[in-house]
Amino acid sequence: MNIPEELKYSKDHEWIRVENNIAHIGITDFAQSELGDIVYVELESLDEKLNEGEVMGSIEAVKTVSDIFMPVSGTVIEINEELESNPEMVNSDPYTDGWLAKIEISNPDEINDLLDANAYKKLIGAE
């Protein structure tokens, strides 16, 4: 199970990488493996300001659909348009090519509420 040390994680299995006040967001390797083969990613929240915990989109796998939640509050400034034609990138490379969105963080203090890699490993039982 790939759980990069430099990222932060939500209890809903999203990861976040912060650079200045911009964050890349995706789903974790654990989440994509639990979902199975991803066939569609829906992110219609471009330019929307969303609060922590609000739904920003959904991921459809062969047997299920799962919501994607905002790990911190902010405005969605970019979505990964490559996923429209290649949703399987979330399965093959969830932390780089399979990123979902970039957000401009509106409340940086919320980052402190996220899990580090060790806490996320404990959450999913991967210690």
From TrEMBL:
Tell me which cofactor or cofactors this protein depends on: (R)-lipoate
Is Coiled coil there in the keyword field? no
Q: Which UniProt keywords apply?
A: Lipoyl
What the record notes about the co-factor is: Binds 1 lipoyl cofactor covalently.
Can you supply one Gene Ontology CC term for this chain's record? cytosol
What Pfam families would the database entry show?
GCV_H
Q: Which residues form a coiled coil?
A: none
Q: Which InterPro entries match?
A: 2-oxoA_DH_lipoyl-BS (IPR003016), Biotin_lipoyl (IPR000089), GCV_H (IPR002930), GCV_H/Fam206 (IPR033753), GCV_H_sub (IPR017453), Single_hybrid_motif (IPR011053)
Pinpoint the Lipoyl-binding domain residues.
Answer: 22-104
Which GO biological process entries does UniProt record here?
A: glycine decarboxylation via glycine cleavage system; protein lipoylation
N6-lipoyllysine PTM sites in chain numbering: 63
Q: Does the entry feature the keyword Glycoprotein, yes or no?
A: no
Q: Where are the transmembrane segments?
A: none
**What is the recorded function of this protein according to its Swiss-Prot or TrEMBL entry?**
The glycine cleavage system catalyzes the degradation of glycine. The H protein shuttles the methylamine group of glycine from the P protein to the T protein.
Q: Which NCBIfam families match?
A: gcvH (TIGR00527), PRK01202.1 (NF002270)
Which HAMAP family does the record match to this protein? GcvH (MF_00272)
Q: How does it assemble?
A: The glycine cleavage system is composed of four proteins: P, T, L and H.
Family as reported in the entry's similarity comment:
Belongs to the GcvH family.
What protein does this entry describe?
Answer: Glycine cleavage system H protein
Q: Which organism is it from?
A: Aquimarina atlantica
Its gene? gcvH
